[in-house]
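Structure (tokenized):
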């Protein structure tokens, strides 16, 4: 079975070489905290491809980070663009955006889309420093809605344990935005912070008709039962396997990050072959169509 991963991070080379120093020079205070976590692994584009080959991952969507600064955003998009170009057929990428930096971020978005980026994200307004009502952000959403484009949001669960970098992301914000911009293909990372449960409310299910969920970092947050539970709440066509590689999602079982353990978990939880094939790859294909 072909496996395609909807959530893989590639960081700029300078950031990987010296995370603390690079973050300090760039004013990336939030990323600095996460980068020192023992859970964080590192892999350049070649290393990602090697691990994909070892673990049977055919294709990965490389996603940007929610940088606080324009300089980091620029470096991120340059390294993503380079990775896609150097590994034909293996990667697509979502561009980082920085609406908090004002009007120049709109030109950067146009340039990214013209350069072939398949969408934007991961975005996290509360860390980046803009509001859902920020005019530049709204202009980005308006443009993306017109193009029937894709937006990936980092979503945290409103209850649970505390961990470095956890910030509240009210679920209502996503429901409201999805209702206002229904032609955007929204991807809510990390099982949407539990939003699938609220699809039991018909008004939420209607507003979220174009909302997709990825499974990034799932083992750090939920027991394997999440796969079956989520499948009872949202259509199987809107859940996408995403690993959050090179995060070590199974810290007790992994010395190095890999894809295989999460693929195995999905296989162990989903009995129906058609549903499994959809989640492990076909849904990502549809998202990117
Ligand atoms: Zn995330």
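Design, position by position:
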């Amino acid at each position: 079975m072909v496996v395609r991963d909807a959530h893989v991070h590639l960081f700029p080379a300078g950031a990987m070489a010296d995370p603390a120093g690079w973050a300090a020079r760039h004013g990336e205070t939030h990323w600095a905290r996460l980068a020192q976590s023992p859970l964080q692994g590192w892999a350049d584009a070649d290393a990602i491809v090697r691990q994909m080959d070892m673990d049977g991952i055919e294709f990965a969507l490389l996603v940007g980070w929610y940088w606080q600064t324009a300089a980091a955003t620029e470096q991120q998009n340059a390294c993503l663009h380079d990775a896609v170009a150097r590994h034909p057929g293996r990667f697509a990428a979502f561009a980082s955006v920085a609406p908090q930096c004002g009007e120049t971020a709109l030109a950067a978005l146009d340039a990214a889309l013209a350069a072939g980026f398949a969408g934007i994200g991961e975005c996290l307004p509360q860390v980046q420093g803009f509001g859902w009502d920020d005019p530049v952000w709204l202009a980005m959403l308006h443009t993306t809605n017109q193009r029937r484009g894709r937006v990936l949001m980092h979503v945290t669960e409103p209850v649970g344990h505390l961990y470095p970098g956890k910030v509240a992301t009210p679920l209502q914000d996503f429901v409201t935005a999805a209702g206002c911009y229904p032609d955007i293909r929204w991807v809510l990372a990390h099982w949407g912070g539990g939003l699938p449960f609220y699809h039991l409310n018909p008004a939420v299910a209607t507003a979220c008709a174009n909302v997709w969920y990825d499974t990034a970092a799932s083992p750090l947050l939920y027991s394997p039962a999440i796969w079956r539970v989520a499948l009872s709440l949202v259509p199987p066509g809107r859940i996408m396997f995403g690993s959050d590689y090179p995060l070590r999602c199974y810290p007790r079982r992994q010395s190095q990050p890999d894809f295989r353990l999460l693929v195995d978990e999905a296989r162990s939880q989903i009995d129906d072959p058609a549903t499994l094939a959809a989640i492990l790859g076909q849904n990502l294909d549809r998202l990117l169509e």
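Reviewer-requested clarification: The CA atoms of residues 15 and 47 lie 16 Å apart. The beta strands are 3-9, 57-63, 91-95, 119-123, 150-153, 185-188, 211-214, 239-240.
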